[in-house]
Please model this.
Amino acid sequence: MKTLVWVEHDGSSVKDATLAAVTAASQLGEVHLLVAGENVGAVAEAAAKIAGVGKVHVADDAAFAHALAENVAPLVVELMGHHDAFVAPATTTGKNIAPRVAALLDVMQISDILSVESEDTFTRAIYAGNAIATVQSSDAKKVLTVRGTAFDKAATDGGSGTIEAVASTGDKGLSTFTGSEIAANARPELTSAKIIVSGGRALGSEEQFHALIDPLADKLGAGVGASRAAVDAGYAPNDYQVGQTGKIVAPEIYVAVGISGAIQHLAGMKDSKTIIAINKDDDAPIFQVADLGLVGDLFKVVPELTEKL
Amino acid sequence: MKVLVPVKRVLDYNVKPRVKADGTGVDLANVKMSMNPFDEIAVEEAIRLKDRAGVTEIVVVSIGEPKAAETIRTALAMGADRGILVTSETKVEPLGVAKLLAKIVEEEAPDLVVLGKQAIDDDNNQTGQMLAGLLGWGQGTFASKVEIADGSAVVTREVDGGLETDTLKLPAIVTTDLRLNEPRYASLPNIMKAKSKPMATKTAADYGVDVAPRLTTLKVVEPGKRQAGIKVADVDELVMKLQAMGIAK
Model:
């Protein structure tokens, strides 16, 4: 089976989520990559070095600069003429593009896979991770998105893929990128951070969220996350949200501060290796999944912990 | 301007799903079912667009078992105008739903289709993007803000790094994220009024669309359970444990 993996990048380097998708694809067969964007020569070079990679298809055109699904999907469909599976990381970009590709190919996509059981059979989480389904596809071609935390990352070196330019399918004129607010963040990205400190609604305000969570995260070299309740209340931006409909994370250590542990939040972090919970409510459901729990007032406990670490 | 809003009947947000003992799925017998929360946000946005962008009619569609009529009634009670129920005896996958919706779009000619970004049962996050692909329309997924002006929709999207804004030529597809709005509760008088709002009932076959499933669910199991750990008495003990684990110095 010949796979085509969507390379997620920031214009200069390959994003980590791609590497898990490469591992998933390698379990299906030959791994080819698609690098689409504008001036992506450096990305293509880096992509060709990923271990186990065959061909790297490069579509360099302004129409692909912001990975608009309307422009990218026809390009993928074109390439799928000689590939058997389209594999994208389950990032917001992958989730945006893959179903459009699937519909154009008349294929039922399998979203957010946790494992590859065989060429046509995969597992995936349903109901916020409260059940794991094994599904078999009868479609001739496959379209998959891959949960980054469920697969090891392919090595970023050792590969010797061949770079091949592909013709642009052009701008379809349906949508234009108007702008973005991407916060410059010196902290590790949530989906690849080794340690995450997350705050919940109990922090009470945006100021207190930052005053308590940030120093602890800095001390641990951690990424910062938040519960939906904290994001809805405006204490933290949307890209901090961990959970069923936010980011799925599985760091070595997850510190939940003032998070009660709704199933929708647990869905996003319960595969973390070690979970540490700080909450004033002894009965909070977060303690049922936490390896280490501390019942106490977070406004006293968190500064003390930050100081003593 | 007309807006189409597809809605799905799912296990209520607050009910803990239980996997059936025979491993065929999640038990939906005698449990509370509700409108998918993201679809409530979609209905709410359509209603708000009536005031904001001159939307004149909101048509709600639900595809599934006959009981999905209740979900349509809920949307009508919130403020939608008319319903279309498409019944199917078998489960319809997102691809089949998108194909049926594409047919309904042909008939209804809406300017905008607003859908929830994902249903909280299957967590697929596909239907809106698939429909956009089938129709050849622009798609503004994971929306936290929608503005309609001069034949286009300006959609602010929640993406991994923050927010992105795209401008879509109408007609277009929008899928809703959590922060787009807070859906209203239907008032009692509006629930009464909704009972007399029109609702057409169709079957998947009426649209001549093949909705046979492409996927077979071989089994459904509970995920591995985490063991609850220990509680520590104070910060000093927590620090000690963290040191023992090599996390703190």
